[in-house]
């Protein structure tokens, strides 16, 4: 079962290393990690996606709260959160395949950033399922490079 840990931390050097090190020391894999400042430049949020039971997620929450620069840890329900990531993909392309590729990019609500004689650079943001589907489709054209962010998330608003 996937869990999202939304970890509010003081924005100081080494904090991400301390947080990720907690997982390393326990021999636990992180599926995705992303960090960014909040509206307050002194505070950042680290988003970690992990696989494991609810007990494991709660155990990590407790351990994280013991770290000096951790302010808060929320466990977001994976199925009730808005999750996004960004991917940049450079693919090989022949001029006669461009219309086909443009159609694929449109379906995934992507943007084209560069077109060269034999390559196209594409940007797409979406949920992990959409990003994985895009990669699967583009493999047939020849992926030259990929840069993929970690996942970020917020819970869906419920009253």
What descriptors fit this protein?
159 residues; alpha+beta; Alpha-Beta Plaits; 2 domains; five-stranded antiparallel beta sheet; four-stranded antiparallel beta sheet; 9 strands; 28% helix; 42% strand
Question: Layout of helices and strands, plus pairs?
Answer:
Layout: E1 2-10, H1 15-25, E2 32-37, E3 43-51, H2 54-65, E4 70-77, E5 81-92, H3 98-107, E6 111-115, E7 119-126, H4 128-138, E8 143-148, E9 152-155
Antiparallel strand pairs: 1-3, 1-4, 2-3, 5-7, 5-8, 5-9, 6-7
Please, could you describe this protein's structure?
By secondary structure, this protein is α+β, with helices and mostly antiparallel strands. It has 2 domains: 2-81, Alpha-Beta Plaits; 83-155, Alpha-Beta Plaits, CATH 3.30.70. 28% of the residues lie in helices and 42% in strands. It has helices spanning 15-25, 54-65, 98-107, 128-138, and strands at 2-10, 32-37, 43-51, 70-77, 81-92, 111-115, 119-126, 143-148, 152-155. Strands 5, 6, 7, 8 and 9 form a 5-stranded antiparallel beta sheet that branches. Strand 6 (111-115) and strand 7 form a beta hairpin. The longest helix is centred in the middle third of the chain and has 12 residues, at 54-65. It is elongated. The two termini are 25 Å apart. The mean pLDDT is 94.
